Amino acid sequence: MAAALTTLAVALLAYLLGRSTLPLFVGRSVEPPGPVLQLELLLGNALLSIIGLLLAETGQFALRWVVGIAILVCTIGFAVRASRPEHPGTPSYDSRDAVGIALLIAGYLWAFPPFDTSLFGLDSSLYLASGVHIAEHGSLVIHDPTVALIPLAERVQWFPLYHPESNTPPFLRVGGGLLLADLASDRVLPAFQPLLSVWVAIFSAIGGDQAMAAPITYFGALFLWAFATFMAALAGPWAAGVAVGLLTSLVPQYWYSRFPMPEIPSEYFLWGGLWVGSLSLSSGARRLGALSGLAIGVAGLMRLDMLIHVGAALALWTALARRQSWPAGRGFAPALLLMAAYALVHQLWFPTHYFAEMSPRLLIVRDYLRSHHLLTFGVAGFVVLAVAMAAVMLTESGLADGAGVLRAALRLAALAAFTTYAVAIVATAWPDVTTNLAWLRLYAGWPLGVAAAIGVPLWVRRARNSAQRFVLVFGLLATAQLFFYPPVSPQPLWAIRRFLRIALPVATMAAALPLISLAERGRWLLSVLALVLMAAFGPRLAFTYRQPGYQNTMAYVRSIGAQVPRGAVIVGDPAFFAESQLHIALWITRDAPAYFLAGTMTDSLRALRTAMRDRPMFWIGPTDRPPPVVTGNLKLVRVASYTFTVAARRMEPYDERDDLGLREISLAMYRVDLDPT
């Protein structure tokens, strides 16, 4: 109940933000754009994302500030509307909004309840823990006072480089995704983009532990509405219904609408932005292009690689598409560029592991271009000079006007940018076609792939504006790129999420088109048979994954943490901590910095215990793995034991079995002391 009520409260706040500011993005249009409620929620959620992230970046996050700034924005928005009576105002609601609300409720119930992945959730555990930290401490930064207690020369032994091959920071503070940007600082950051954690903080601040994972079902339901609306604009409401049915039957869409990861929120803002871009062209409300760019930019704040996908597709589109075919209305490019700049500045001030991961690849591209003399000043200068001279000659001779030359230069620049991107992908990664196809067969099915291939030319024929055609190019390009990069841990259910945001929605849309085409020709039976074939001989289906999982894990963390004084130091078995993420959860909930130490590392444990001085220290590990051997003045005093059970999905490398299993956990906790005698 807490999760549902919190979701309703957040949706109301987003609605008020959108309601008050949407007229600034609409202007006058040929026909009223809609569904209006969907536009308001998209704008409100985007603004709420930016408000929350800015507060967390400045260390001022608190629910009262989030609500207060939201109320201030609403007041300004309504005041601007009242001061401009000639303004067209907000379009009115209609039946599409009622249908959308029904779809939202159905989508929320479909993905409810969200999983509490505080334990055994891989990266998801860190997103939740980081959100709880933001809610309780108001900042993205986690300050670790124990770093200063370790001599500077010894810190590199405790905190190795996150990417050793890059030989550049950040450093791994502890396994599980916490980083140190500088060994001389106590400033610890999560390894991943923090926007999902900001949403976790908002929900946690309102509804507590019972609501902290609820953003994932909220965004999962919102995405289904955006997806359906885009498809309805492309091919009609029946096609939208078929596409939604196909997509919600797929395990990845269902699983990650319950399992907190940034893919689903990023998917929502992306497809919301793509839909608004199409709407800005079809309705004539050209200023909605700014909302499209804003929403896609927020998708990039949620997952940084989204901006790379979008940027590459826009470069290719600009280079090859005909004139006057921009995929959104006025304001799209400035809004998107502004959000991309914000994402870059955020990355500089709050570095994640992505920069260190990308640096070696960028160096490879640089060396490749240098080897072909493409970065030599003489060659590059000659090319620029030749192009400039040709432009001047064409303009002076009257063969081309200045605007035409500028457009040609823009096309050349876009083509050069896309070529550089393609070289970067091909030169720094290798395609794993077999493995990726095996995962797609498992979770999407070959019949859907065949239907999608048939649907591509139908998409081209049905597309009503450049935005809808751009989405097809975008989807095909991103899908091809995903066969090369990014690398991902090869657990099938874990890895398939890379295809979730772009490839699977585009594939299900394309697959729905031939089914609808058959029905439109009166061949209903053949259409139904094709749909049955896609389900019967296709992928694993979502309804088989309805079993409860990851229940009460934060309650277990709180119970274990009750034995740990605030500010203590947690030490434990690396294998168990890396698998369970218990150390991250205890650090966040008890302000107890964690260290990995195997049971055989007695000397290291003694050195760490000495360095921590008066801070209490506890070693935690499974009872079937022995604690460190006590030698010399080192003492281990058993203080507690804890036993619990967690139902979690199997996620093993290259293992197609992703069945639900019960983990029987039995832990022992020891106080680590030094005998002064």
Question: What's the short version?
Answer:
This protein has 677 residues and is α+β, with helices and mostly antiparallel strands. The chain has helices at residues 2-21, 23-26, 36-57, 63-83, 95-110, 123-137, 155-158, 195-207, 215-235, 237-248, 251-255, 263-282, 288-302, 305-320, 332-349, 353-371, 377-397, 402-428, 433-443, 446-462, 466-482, 492-495, 503-520, 524-536, 553-561, 574-580, 582-590, 602-611; strands at residues 142-143, 171-174, 178-180, 187-190, 569-572, 594-596, 617-622, 634-649, 660-674. Strand 3 (178-180) and strand 4 form a beta hairpin.
Layout: helices, strands, pairs:
Elements lengths: L1 H20 L1 H4 L9 H22 L5 H21 L11 H16 L12 H15 L4 E2 L11 H4 L12 E4 L3 E3 L6 E4 L4 H13 L7 H21 L1 H12 L2 H5 L7 H20 L5 H15 L2 H16 L11 H18 L3 H19 L5 H21 L4 H27 L4 H11 L2 H17 L3 H17 L9 H4 L7 H18 L3 H13 L16 H9 L7 E4 L1 H7 L1 H9 L3 E3 L5 H10 L5 E6 L11 E16 L10 E15 L3
Parallel strand pairs: 5-6, 5-7
Antiparallel strand pairs: 1-4, 2-3, 3-4, 7-9, 8-9
Q: What is the 3D form? A: globular
Q: Mean of the pLDDT scores? A: 86
Strand content: 5-15%
The rounded distance between the terminal residues' Cα atoms is 56 Å
Q: Classify the secondary structure makeup into a structural class.
A: alpha+beta
Distinct helical segment count: 28
Kindly state the number of beta strands. Answer: 9
Q: Unreliable runs, pLDDT <50, ≥5 residues?
A: none
Widest β-sheet, arrangement of strands = 6-5-7-9-8
Fraction of residues in H or I helices: 55-70%
The description of the largest β-sheet is: 5 strands, mixed
Q: How much is the radius of gyration in Å? A: 27 Å
